[in-house]
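I am going through a labmate's work and have reached the protein record below. What it holds is a sequence and that sequence's fold in token form. Please read both lines and tell me whether the tokens look consistent with the sequence. Do not assume that whoever made the record got everything right. Thanks in advance; the entry in question is below.
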Amino acid sequence: MRRVLLLPLFAALVMAACTKAAPTTPPSAPTTVSETAGPASPEAHGINNIDHMIFLVMENRSFDHYFGTYPGADGIPNKVCVPDPALGNKCTVPYHDTDQVDVGGPHTLAASETDVNNGKMDGFIQAALDQDDNPCVADPKGPDCEDRVGPQGQPEVMGYHDRGEIPNYWAYADNYVLQDHMYAPTDSWTLPSHLFLMSAWSAICTDHTDPMSCTSSLGGDGKKLEVPTQKGDTPYAWTDITYLLDKAGVSWNYYVAPGPTCYQKACDLAKNQDKTTGYQNPMPGFLTVKEDKSSAKVTAYTKYFAAAESGALPSVSWVMPAINQSDHPGHASIKEGQAFVTDVVNAAMKGPDWDSTAVFVTWDDWGGFYDHEKPIVIDANGYGIRVPGLLISPYAKEGFVDHQVLSFDAYLKLIEDRFLDGQRLDPKTDGRPDPRPTVREDVSQLGDLTKEFDFSQGPRPPLLLDPGLQGTPEG
């Protein structure tokens, strides 16, 4: 599969110098701030310097799996011991995995409970054994297992990658912001995570036209979360962020892989590797999107690249890869996933909107891979196991590791604070009540993404990286 071509190089950004206006009052009279202030500095504007937010969501990697050995991050601790039931509960340690394609492990609600094991964080191999579809977990010396286990027979769920395999991800961390306490919004799989991304909730609705008929569900409670099967299906009746954006006249687009299938009906994971699956694209299933006549805003990501090139990015963009570009274990190589992220970031950097843009990159769930950090309990729905998170922006703090507690709820909070005057997805105040148990954006544990920016500096120039594995600036 060929990736989207990169766009023409954008010229270096130049920031205008601030000058003070001459006083308009006599020298003896007191002056006011408004009388003496010249053009406001970036620091004075704060988060209002950011006119474009881009959220790029990849698939199924834990924080320790990608950044567990990154300097300064809360990574893999010494003396890790995860029992391997297939080897008599032998103490198993993480290992450096240099493979480009991983299998991963189960990442359902039940698997999360096994992995976390009441906070011990030592059930990852047990969960992989329970899945019973990777024979190399039970028999690491079996046929065809040489490239599927570590040097001591460790299952792939105990493997981690470093700069050697993911140089561009590490380069973004070096130069911008790495979030080392980004928790998946829920302790479950892709679809609930994406529902939380857009709405801070995952639910089942008995009446697809009535938000008050919805009750919390992660799809692991004996009830299957619905996915739209054809254009016009709206199983998600509760309120999502696009309702507030449309109400306020804030522009947005949700970009998925080209081709009509995946934004008219759900994709089949096994047959459409070059498409964004329905699990990654719940947007057409929200009742608000249909009622607001916003379905056309869910569109091919070729239009994202065109908008970035022409300086026509909306205020808020979500970009979802095809499954074979997504980092998804078993379906995508790390090389292809990293290349897609790099193409998306480079496009933003090369366009005229770069000096007012923030790009957030994350992964939707942990993919069954080991992580040592016990998830924080916010409500009955989560949080889930840690995933990697990056902020890339001309105003991002350079080489900063953010230790704040974050989740996808922090993205919604940032959107709401920047574009919606702080209005939350709160059934008491948003004009569209639903019975969600928690206003996630307002929980006390949630960090503040504005602390990752430094608006005292001018916008930094782009860092264009090679979409391949070199991890070096484009020449």
